[in-house]
Amino acid sequence: MAATWAHKDTGLLVGLLVGALTIGTAFPHLLNAVGGVDWRFTLAATSVMALCSALLVNLVKLGPALGMRLRFDPTAVFKAWSNKALRLANFGYMGHMWELYAMWAWVGLFVHANFLTRPEMADDEAKFLANLASFAVIGIGAAGCFLGGLFADRVGRTTLTMAAMAVSGTCALFVGALFGVEPWLLLLVCLIWGIAVVADSAQFSSSIIELAEPNNIGTMLTIQTSIGFMITLATTHLVPYLVDTLGWYYAFAPLAAGPFLGVWAMARLRAHPDAVKLANGNR
Q1: The pTM is what?
Q2: All domains of the chain in start order, with CATH
Q3: CA quadruple 234, 237, 242, 247: dihedral, nearest 10
Q4: Backbone dihedral region of 279: left (phi > 0), alpha (psi from -120 to 50 degrees) or beta?
Q5: Looking at residue 283, what DSSP letter applies?
Q6: CA within 20 to 30 Å of 73's CA: 123, 128, 252, 279, which one?
Q7: Tens digit of pLDDT for each residue in 243-261?
Q8: At what angle do helices 217-246 and 201-211 cross, to 10 degrees?
Q9: Rg over CA atoms, the chain
């Protein structure tokens, strides 16, 4: 839907879309801080927002870049693998998703546990501050999506994605070492992580839009997104086991494997001849 309005600014338009998703992911943490311990308030408020979205989406019009509309083609999954450029873009996205939702799901409890290491911090205060911190750490990623889209359209998709994954992977690898330190220092690193962990997200979709055959864009995006979210099931459920066995000091470190794999994949894509199709030739 966003791609049909794109004119040399695909990364920015899809970045705005993912930025909205990021704000939506962060917002329940703010509602939880306002509503206190009553989960019913947060659930009811977010449900009302979802219903509003269901109405608003009916106002969306498809843009002039809409090509021939075909039905979803499940056999196109083979093209997603046999086309090397698409395969590398998908590998990059898989590495990104290995980290993203596990970080979003557990960073709040990580910050909360760190607050509780302070002897002067009461539990209710720690919960309130952790909810605010979660909103900030996740929500600041929307700025990363916007700036990442601007940067990628002008400088290059692979440049942006590799840089973002290198930063986020490094944060995942070492953030646990800051557990138990001053909360402001941990929060600062988590804010940097929050920007980097999602700044590249829209650019994998943008890469698929630019690399796929026009009539298969919807199918290719569906396949990419479905595989990516399936991967998040593994890591989101893995982190609590790592906390139990390794503690917060090392629980996030295995998430770094994903973005480092993604850096490798996008570096390979950058060297591929089809990379000239990316970001108006900016790779």
Answers
A1: 0.92
A2: 3-281 (1.20.1250.20)
A3: 140
A4: left
A5: -
A6: 279
A7: 999 999 999 999 999 999 9
A8: 150
A9: 19
